[in-house]
UniProtKB/TrEMBL annotation:
Residues 1-167 form the Macro domain. Gene3D superfamilies: Leucine Aminopeptidase, subunit E, domain 1. Coiled coil: none annotated. PROSITE patterns: MACRO. This is Macro domain protein. InterPro entries: Macro_dom, Macro_dom-like.
């Protein structure tokens, strides 16, 4: 079972085995955390590595080296764009977290950093996304140290509340 820590910070400055990137389907770098990760990693090197992957479908995850980041790998995952909840958004977002954790396990990672996937320009409702993310991370069977790195205090609060809700209801045990 994964061990989850929730903090506020800059995901590009925290050492870990893997950093998860909330990417777009072209893996081309964009705004928000995706742009910050591309810039901090070294945009040219990361862009060249991403081009070799030929994009990434929503809900899946692909891996590149981390280049100048304090990590070994970047796990790129594409979250769903929110269209009201009737287009399998929850299943796709859950798949992002699950596939990213599977990639971390496959690449022998022990520590993984996640941003809040799909809650920025993709407009996924923060409280719903946080609940789904925390539940998926805590239920993952491998022993990983996972840190949810929140961009701001409202995101931090949403993830802390989701954690409290899940762990107090017995939905998953936290370490």
């Amino acid at each position: 079972m994964s061990n989850l820590q929730i903090i506020t910070g800059d995901i590009t400055k925290i050492p870990a085995d893997a950093i998860v990137n909330a990417a777009n389907t072209q893996l081309s770098g964009g705004g928000g955390v995706d742009g910050a990760i591309h810039q901090a990693a070294g945009n040219q090197e990361l862009q060249a590595a991403c081009q070799k992957l030929h994009g990434c479908p929503t809900g899946e995850a692909k891996v590149t080296p981390a280049f100048n980041l304090p990590a070994h790998i970047i796990i790129h995952t594409v979250g769903p764009i929110w269209h009201g909840g009737g287009y399998h958004e929850a299943q796709l977002l859950q798949a992002c977290y699950r596939h990213s954790l599977m990639q971390a396990t496959t690449h022998h990672c022990q520590t993984v950093l996640f941003p809040s996937i799909s809650t920025g320009v993709y407009r996924y409702p923060l409280a719903q996304a946080a609940l789904l993310a925390v539940k998926t991370i805590l239920q993952f069977p491998a022993a990983l140290a996972v840190t949810m790195v929140c961009f701001d205090s409202s995101t931090l609060q949403a993830y802390q509340e989701a954690f409290q809700q899940i762990t107090s209801s017995g939905g998953a045990a936290a370490k």
